Amino acid sequence: MIDPVYDRYNSFKTSAKQRGKEFNISLKEFRAFCQETGYVINKGYRGKVASVDRVINSLGYSIDNIQMLSIRANINKYHQEDRFADVPF
After folding, report:
1. I need a surface site. Which of 5, 14, 19, 32 has the fewest CB within 10 A?
2. pLDDT surpassing 70 at residue 86
3. Rounded CA gap, 25 and 35, in Å?
């Protein structure tokens, strides 16, 4: 039987590693996050699909630095940040 939370946790952890992001969330913590937010259940369509967002993007993934956002809100957050603050020109 497939465990959707475990499956999503592994995908999430692998993705963070591939992107060079620190990942310090246990499966137990992730299960609690999913239960509290409805993350795995809240599948949606287009911009309403649930995503996990780092509250402070300069930090890695930890249970106190993640929140559930719609994919649309997550993309808007990304575009609103000053991503070029360290560029000298």
Report:
1. 19
2. no
3. 15
Give me Rg for the CA atoms of the chain.
Answer: 14
Question: What's the domain count of the chain?
Answer: 1
| Distance of alpha carbon 63 from alpha carbon 3, whole angstroms | 20
- Domain with 45, as residue range(s), is 4-80
What whole-number distance in Å separates Cα of residue 89 and Cα of residue 23? 32
Q: Are 44 and 21 in contact (CB under 8 A)?
A: no
Q: What is the pLDDT of residues 16-65, one digit of tens each?
A: 999 999 999 999 999 999 999 888 776 555 556 788 899 998 899 999 99
In a domain, 87, yes or no: no
28 in a structural domain: yes
Residues in the chain: 89
Q: Compute how many other C-beta atoms are within 10 angstroms of the C-beta atom of residue 13.
A: 16
